[in-house]
Amino acid sequence: MTVTPLPGRSTVRGFLGRAGLAAVLLLAPLAPVGPAAAVEKEAGAEAAAAPATAADWTPPLSTRGRWIVDANGNRFKLRSGNWHGASGTWNGSGSTEDDANHHAGENSGRVPLGLDRAPMAEIISGFQEIGVNSIRLPFSNEMIHDGRPVTDRAVAANPILRGKTPLQVYDAVVRGLTDAGLAVILNNHTSTTRWCCGVDGNERWNAGQSTQTWESDWLFMARRYQDNKRVVGADLYNEVRRSVWDDPNWGLGDDHDWFAASQHVADRILTEADPDLLIIVEGINWTGIPVDGFAHGRPTLEPVRRLSHTLVDSGKLVYSAHFYDYTGPNHSGATGLGETSDPRYRDLSPAELTDVVHRQALYVAAEQDQHFTAPVWISEFGVGGREETGAAPRAWFENFVDDLIRADADFAYWPLVGWHEDRKGNGWALLHWDAAGHRMGVYDGDDWRAGAWTRLVQAQRRTGPVAPVANWSMLSPDHGDFVASRRMRALPDWNPGARKAACPDGQRLLGLSHTGNRGLCTDVSTGSLANPSGTHEVVTDERHVAPGQDWASGYTKLQCAEGQFLTGYSVRGSAVSAALCTAAPAGALGTSGRTVWFDRSDNRGPASQGGDFAYGHYKGQCANDEYLAGIAYTGRLGSSRTPDALYCRKLS
Prior knowledge:
- By secondary structure, the chain is of the alpha/beta class.
- The chain is built from ten helices and 28 strands.
- It has helices at 19-25, 120-129, 141-145, 166-179, 211-224, 258-272, 350-366, 391-407, 450-458, 486-489, and strands at residues 62-64, 67-69, 79-82, 134-140, 183-190, 231-235, 278-282, 287-288, 296-297, 317-324, 376-382, 410-413, 417-419, 431-433, 439-441, 472-475, 482-483, 499-502, 508-513, 519-522, 536-539, 556-559, 564-572, 575-583, 589-597, 619-621, 626-633, 645-651.
- Strands 3-4-5-6-7-10-11-12 form an eight-stranded parallel barrel. Strands 17-18-23-24-21 form a five-stranded mixed β-sheet. Strands 16-20-19-26 form a four-stranded antiparallel β-sheet, with no helix packed on it.
- α5 runs parallel beside α6.
- It is elongated.
- The chain starts with 18 loop residues before the first helix and ends with a strand.
């Protein structure tokens, strides 16, 4: 969720000050992040799209390049909405029983919003009527452990849920959604059950709890719904942002490293809980102090270009980002204290908006055959409804929808459900119910968003089968082991004391950096090279360099035996320690080879793919029709024993 700018309220989103500034900034009222809110349910007039049915798609979901596909390989576009409430609506002060202390006066009662006003089946039917096929379902870590029964009021329209805990209600909602054929993405929205996303103790996955607790809760949730294959994804954490004293980062290797934390828990979910889930990683939402003259900004997915995830299972990674009109690339979304002179997204021209959204997020899906190529899910965007009269927010919404359509991007509107009284309320939602259970929807005829929403859900898009594509994967043992091979993870440590990197099973190592320890893996030209025998060898010397075949004279060569190819390596400091060689299926590998030197410049060939997998470092890479058979380095005085040359041999 993001901060919703409400009338008469200062909004401060995802930032914190330092030192003396922190004390001042903390006095500012934090915008209850996340434009939650209210509006509509179509009274039945002009439904935007035919309801999804269980027969429309076959779980589980996976990815092929930039596309999400179902079990039959058919494109499954996430046309999603957020059904919020289970992660909390309380603003953080005052009684939780008083609606006035909840965002926009909407008290969810610790369950998905609206269960007090309409039967669950009616709410879900409303989702289908407006063209939604999937639901992002937020939860808090506190919700998982909250043993207090929900109040009767919170589930007044669903009396069968009385006496249940918030988690049990969440279970029922998941079942109701999936029984209707909708896909469900579990979203860890907050640690505590309260409205997101200011300076609220929920800024990071480990701001109010340990990383170990967060990981354990994810394993619990993934296992809990493992048998329900229409639970398709794990959205790891919402809007990672600055706390009072510290910024999150992408790759520094410390306790605030969101890249490392998300990589680690993702692999644990896939290996210890449910290998079928999509793993959704949102970019960093905010860093720095939102004061003119201080560094600050919204990194979103820009760091992915230089450092991307490689999961143990290829085809399971989805990146995500959030966009709202009142925030901006360097604007916190605040009004008053915490507001800077930076433009908001709504201040940008249509062309500028397109360029910025591409740079911050959509490039990940648009640029093919890169180490970072993956689907991008815009998992939150939204705008005020009937009562939004501002020309700039309205224009932004129309323009942003056009950008989503042009990119054929997966999306999730925030929020789907809200409250109204006499057709007045928060205004953001697409479906609203009043206290008497009367529904107000985006297609009632008086909501200016109806046209844009219809364009979005009915837009022409890629459908049908998606052909398999080559995988390109980055290895980054920057601060520790980076073993993306399930097989090698299950075996004893193959080079104790060294930092080890290994490609996902079925991929081969194709490139290395001269410094920086980075590697590039792929299955291009071959598909999986996995050998049923699963044999491997750790090479630390020149035992396999044949007499008269010195391909790097004067250098130490770690070469695989005939019939083997490189799938990993290890380093000590910056120095090469060992080569991991894996047996190939019979007849898969050729024997003719060449030496690729990259100690003084890049040497990747004129049409190399995979992207810049080691920004700022020299890189060597074999051609797509080759495999890597050896690494050469020198131990000369002054040398760091880093890779200098590769031995590239032809595939059969």
